[in-house]
Amino acid sequence: MSDGSARPHCRSCGTALDVSLVDLGMQPISNAMRKPGQLDGPETFYPLKTFVCSACKLVQLQDFHRADELFDDDYTYFSSYSDSWLAHARAYVEMMVPRFGLGPASQVIELASNDGYLLQYFKAKGIPVLGVDPAANVAAVAEKERGIPTVVDFFGVRVAERLAADGRKADLVLGNNVIAHVPDLNDFIGGVAMVLKPEGVATFEFPHLLRMIEANYFDTIYHEHYSYISLLAIERAFARHGLAVFDVEELATHGGSLRVFLTHAVRGLAPTERLVAFRAREAAAGLDGLDAYADFAARVRAAKRNLLSLLIGLKNDGRSIVGYGAPAKGNTLLNYCGIRTDFLDYTVDRSPAKQGRFLPGTTIPVHAPERIFETRPDYVLILPWNLTDEIVGQMAAIRDWGGRFIVPLPEARVLP
């Protein structure tokens, strides 16, 4: 953890960081929802500034806090409240089981297993599963409601050694949207190499850096995301620990993600054609240089001005606006743009863990989705824009009174 006085160093290769990508100012922890009794108390803000490693090209934050401050017993993110995300998890299991011959004799370990949203589908097929997650309250839901055994801890070499000693090495290790959350990348990857069987396979999904830059999805930058990952950077990180990527799949999730398939490098698996093609795509985009990152900050500032111009115009016309969702990305967007209750009357979220609380920094109240049908606002700002189709489908009835949806990024627009 840095106190800001020393020059930060790359969490992957150790190179001193001196190339800034974008500075989103001082912001609170994005998932640190406020309770009613906390509103009159102090709230801590940290710098939200990203750097590009000039050596390995990993984009990352300078961290000013401990990971255990982010994933405490009051963690409010539960994966199972998104129908589309559950469908994504189910499709993954249906693909992986036949491709790698998984069955009752196999062991599947998910890192950052959350509330058992994915492992439940392996379990239903009779495949032994184990989750690892640092949030005790979320892990308790996985165990009690879905019967998913879960180790409550931060995964790394220490936990991997314990699992290996207990005979729990894995045929499949998976992690969805976890690598970006890891402050000690080498400890995490070292643990993966240790817990993976000699013939085992690991898969990791993460929002793709190139897509973030191309589409201007700057709100995916927040303090829980220590790293912003390209195929180029993550292959270099895996290689330091004897792991090699042999396949890659491009996904639509989170505005554009990658799923990488890897195994022990000593197996010598040849890269698939799509991996070779994707390496060439990143090279063509210039991700191994620095020019590709140069204009991102200017486009971020322009997106802020465009969104505020739209909202100011609507408010000046006397329109009522509320939010849908309370995702971490939404809190980055709202705090960076200075959008508070002077713009949004409230927001709603399907997760009961968030209802009755207030968004960090902006103190916008969070209600159940039914609130929208009680107040009948003119506009609904969709904060989890990656779920726009799902949300518009669920909330289509707002159009009955002429209500409309706003999508903030990549460019603020009102849906027809």
First CA to last CA: what distance? 46 Å
**Largest sheet: number of strands, sense, barrel closure:** 7 strands, mixed
In total, how many beta strands?
17
Mean pLDDT: 93
Walkthrough of the structure:
With 416 residues, this protein is α/β, with parallel strands linked by helices. Helix 4 runs parallel beside helix 5 (185-195). It folds into 2 domains: 79-293, Rossmann fold; 297-414, NAD(P)-binding Rossmann-like Domain (Rossmann fold). Strand 15 (379-382), helix 12 (388-394) and strand 16 form a beta-alpha-beta unit. A 7-stranded mixed β-sheet has the order 6-5-4-7-8-11-10, sandwiched between helices. A 6-stranded mixed β-sheet has the order 14-13-12-15-16-17, with helices on both faces. The model is unreliable at 1-5 (pLDDT under 50). It contains 12 helices and 17 strands.
Summarize the structure.
InterPro entries: Methyltransf_Zn-bd_dom_put, Methyltransf_Zn-bd_dom_put_sf, MeTrfase_14, SAM-dependent_MTases_sf. Keywords: Methyltransferase, Transferase. By secondary structure, the protein is α/β, with parallel strands linked by helices.
Write the layout of secondary structure elements.
Layout: E1 19-27, E2 46-52, E3 59-61, H1 83-100, E4 108-111, H2 119-124, E5 129-133, H3 136-146, E6 150-152, H4 157-165, E7 170-176, H5 185-195, E8 196-207, H6 209-215, E9 227-228, H7 231-239, E10 243-251, E11 257-264, H8 273-284, H9 296-316, E12 321-324, H10 328-337, E13 347-348, E14 366-367, H11 370-375, E15 379-382, H12 388-394, E16 404-407, E17 413-414
Organism: Methyloraptor flagellatus
Domain Methyltransferase putative zinc binding: 10-71
Enzyme class: transferase
